[in-house]
Amino acid sequence: MNLYTLLIIGVGGFIGSVLRYVTVRLVDSKLNALFPYGTLTVNVIGSFLLGLIYMLALRKVGISENARLFLGVGFCGGFTTFSAFALENFSLMEQKLASMSLVYICISVVMGILALAAGIWASRFI
């Protein structure tokens, strides 16, 4: 790991984060619904993009290591962390570890919600 690698990831993350914000706001303002369509949109798009990037990198077809880091780790990581979660679960299922994937999904969702609630609760004391 070097400074250039971190810069590539950081720039990708910046672009992904900004695009996530814009996309969520745009989708949610158009649909004006209680359901978080904007977040769902970025999660699905980010997962799709990471799947493409993963397969291109795996096949070594026209994607350099720097491009993989910029797009996969930086952009998709900034656009949505759900894409990494989806890829990890897909990998577990490919390895015939569906039960481990199910446990990971359940723990991630439940703990994520509980951690969010704990953060909200803790913020009251700051």
Q: Which secondary-structure class do the elements indicate?
A: mainly alpha
Percent of residues in β-strands: under 5%
| Shape, principal axes of CA atoms | globular
Largest sheet: none
User: What Rg do the Cα atoms give?
Assistant: 17 Å
The strand count comes to 0
Describe the structure in your own words:
The chain has 126 residues and is mainly α. It has 2 domains: 3-95, no CATH class; 98-126. The protein contains 5 helices and no strands. It has helices at residues 3-31, 37-59, 65-79, 82-94, 98-123. The radius of gyration is 17 Å and the shape is globular. The model has no long low-confidence stretch (mean pLDDT 90).
Keywords for this structure?
5 helices, 0% strand
Topology:
Layout: H1 3-31, H2 37-59, H3 65-79, H4 82-94, H5 98-123
Helix pairs in contact: 1-2, 1-3, 2-3, 2-4, 4-5
Short description:
This protein has 126 residues and is an all-alpha fold. It is built from 5 helices and no strands.
